[in-house]
Design a protein that fits this description.
This protein is α/β, with parallel strands linked by helices. The chain is built from 7 helices and 9 strands; from the N terminus they run E-H-E-H-E-E-H-H-E-E-H-E-H-E-H-E. The longest helix has 17 residues, at 8-24. It starts with a strand and ends in an 8-residue tail after the last strand. Bound molecules: 2-amino-2-deoxy-6-O-phosphono-alpha-D-glucopyranose. 2-amino-2-deoxy-6-O-phosphono-alpha-D-glucopyranose binds at residues 33-37, 62, 124-126, 132-133, 153.
């Protein structure tokens, strides 16, 4: 694991530089998380001049299961607000209103596999330790699927949903572990306890982000000082 500690002011630029370097190497299969954490990154990307080679595939690793795609709480709406497209290529988001959400997510994962797998995956961490929508209790072999959202995740979603969805679609844990480079982003003191548990505690289904300790190429970028030594 590589731990990069930055100031809050440096955070977005540091992540943009990482994306720039990856995009310069050729067509990129890039997974882009949602949530508050990456918003400044996507805003900085808009001003950065980073471009993606033809054949790049940008996708969201999760989405709510919901009837209204245009609801402001969906990840589709998130990217409509925060992702600079154009000029950047659009982000493929699983359809929240797909008739069979399991099949919808499996389809996205099959497309990623057909394109050679994930080169770079930007991940956030939920305050309960989730990664994508792999909630506490998720086993290490859980596949791409639709899954029940934990109550803390639904509580967080109340910022945008009066009645948050009960389910979400998500990359599976093995798909996350198979990415060539996983980048975990965490900012703000509210993430200190869970990030410490994820990076330094036991590898456990109770904290799905702890599976990342076993990732062969993990970079953590955080503005939380003091997480390295333990
Ligand atoms: C949601 C997303 C996750 C994201 C998490 C963290 O639950 N499905 O992919 O990592 O939020 O959100 P935030 O950055 O707002 O703390």
């Amino acid at each position: 694991m590589e731990l990069i500690t930055v100031t809050p002011e440096e955070f977005a630029g540091r992540v943009v530089e990482l994306i720039r370097a990856a995009a310069a190497a050729g067509p990129l299969n890039l997974g882009l998380s949602t949530g508050r954490t990456p918003v400044p990154v996507y805003e900085a990307l808009a001003r950065s001049g980073v471009s993606f080679a033809a054949g790049s595939y940008l996708f969201a690793p999760d989405e709510y299961v919901a009837a209204e795609p245009e609801h402001p709480g969906t990840n589709r709406s998130f990217f409509a607000r925060h992702w600079p497209s154009p000029p950047l290529p659009p982000v493929v988001v699983p359809r929240c209103d797909a008739p069979d959400p399991d099949a919808e997510m499996r389809g996205l994962c099959a497309e990623i596999a057909r394109r050679g797998g994930i080169d770079l995956l930007l991940l956030g961490i939920g305050e309960n330790g989730h990664i994508c929508f792999n909630e506490p209790g998720t086993p290490a072999d859980a596949p791409c699927r639709a899954a029940t959202l934990a109550e803390p995740t639904r509580a967080q979603a109340r910022a945008l949903w009066a009645e948050p969805p009960h389910r979400g679609m998500t990359l599976g844990v093995p798909n996350i572990m198979a990415t060539r480079h996983a980048v975990l982003l965490a900012t703000g003191e509210g993430k200190r306890a869970i990030l410490t548990a994820a990076l330094h505690g036991p590898v456990t289904a109770a904290v799905p982000a702890s599976y990342l300790q076993r990732h062969p190429h993990l970079t953590v970028i955080t503005d939380l000082a003091g997480l390295g030594e333990r």
